[in-house]
Amino acid sequence: MATTTPITKTLTLPDMTVRYPPVGNPPDGYVITFSASDGYYLAKPQTRILNLNTVSSTPYTVGNEDVTLVSHAGAFVVNLPSSPLVGTSIFVKDFTGNAVTFNITVNAPGNIDGSPSYTINTNYGVLRAVFSGATWVILDKF
Asked: Which CATH class is domain 51-141?
């Protein structure tokens, strides 16, 4: 009977200080993936499942990767996570269609496009934002 010889390979990680400033270690929750474009293994956010939440109690603090449907009959406050992973996406939507009368204020600890809050004041309005590592960046609003 033939015997098999084990094959050993060494995994070499690139200097992550170039890839993820200002520190060399990726944030918690990242996974190592292979980049075929440059032949390196990189730390990237893991695939996330968005959580759908219908909320009616103010203030509401969004979890990481939440789709928040605000069902309200008065002014409403949504607080974004205080220490999310880079690349975390959130969606906030006026689910009842009365944001013109009862605004939804979205507060962010690291600012949203340079402002400490964003107001949804359009019926059935939506805000989609992503965390850049220091601030929240608006991707869509309507």
From this structure: mainly beta
In three state form, how does the secondary structure of 81-142 look?
CCCCCCCCEEEEEECCCCCCCCCEEEEEEEEECCEEEEEECCCCCEEEEEECCCCEEEEEEC
Low-confidence ranges of the chain (pLDDT < 70): 1-2, 11-38, 40-53, 65
| HEC-encoded secondary structure of 49-63 | CCEEEEECCCCEECC
Name the residue ranges covered by the structural domains of the chain: 16-45, 51-141
Q: Measured between alpha carbons, how far is 52 from 71 in angstroms, rounded to an integer?
A: 13
pLDDT at 49: 52
Gap between the Cα atoms of 15 and 103, Å rounded: 46
β-partners of residue 104 are 76, 120
